[in-house]
Fold this protein.
Amino acid sequence: MQELMASLQDPELVARFQRRCGLYRVEGSDSGSGKSRSANGAPITLEEPRGQLQGTWDRQDSNSNYEYKDSKKPQYELVMYVGQVMKDLLKLPRPPSPPVVKLETRVDAEYGLPSTHAMAATAISFTLLLSAPSRVQFCFQTGLLIAVTLSSLVSLSRLYTGMHSVLDVVCGILITAVLILLTYPFWESFDSFQLTSPLSPIIALSLLLFLSYTYPELDHYSTTRGDTTIILGVCAGCSVGYWANVQLGDTFELREPLPVPLPTVTGLSVARGAGRSLLGVVALVGTRQIMKKLSLDALYSWYNVPKTDKNARRRKEIEVPSKFVTYTAVGLVNSLLVNRVFVLIGLL
């Protein structure tokens, strides 16, 4: 088993996969900057390195790896939290360059195993696949093919960009599969508790804030704690928003019996979907910007930190509450307010 794991962690496997995809190193280029070449010989300019495991880090949450979207189930947040924590507990490095060509360098300060991109893609694809039959009529085999394809493409992209070893990706998929299998029998019970119990918003906010504060400490700054807090904040906000919708008696559920047929794609439905996406992005980005500024200003004032000190955002007592409050608000707006605006202007 140790030999198998060592072989799967071999960076040469990733380098060979990159070459199969037409990505080659140029002799004399260094690991972080310089040129690599694609199959047609065109040079690819790599990003400048912005941090090492021991070094400084300059990326704030505006470049976060994770979009603030809800997955309608708690599995996404669960697998992401487990994956992020495992990274910082196991502390296995990303593939070295050379021999790997690194097309991304913004997350070099993070550890590699497991691949949380592979975990997220697998969790979202298969959670939707397993939960959809009770709501929508569709061909399960087609859905399975789509789920496998999407999760595979995301997983392979992590090898192509040189950000993960084969072991990172395989472990991410296997960990997610185990978590889905263990939690699947309780999905409906969790949904019922989340939507109807008076304890639901209290537990969601307190537990997820507690998990954000107790995230494993590292001997260097890494974006994993901030990214994890973002995920937990969105989860908390959406959870409270879904609960509030039920209490208000407006859950935007279809009135016809479930499962319903897949809706017909028309020009009007496409236009409404585009309108909802555009308005949703504006609302969520606007909420994020306003809450980020207000929370940082309040925390800088509370801890008597100059607003010009950008590095203060890395401090736990500032980073965690700021991001948790900001993205809890984003989750609340997403789950509680945006759909009501859609109804008012005829987009839903």
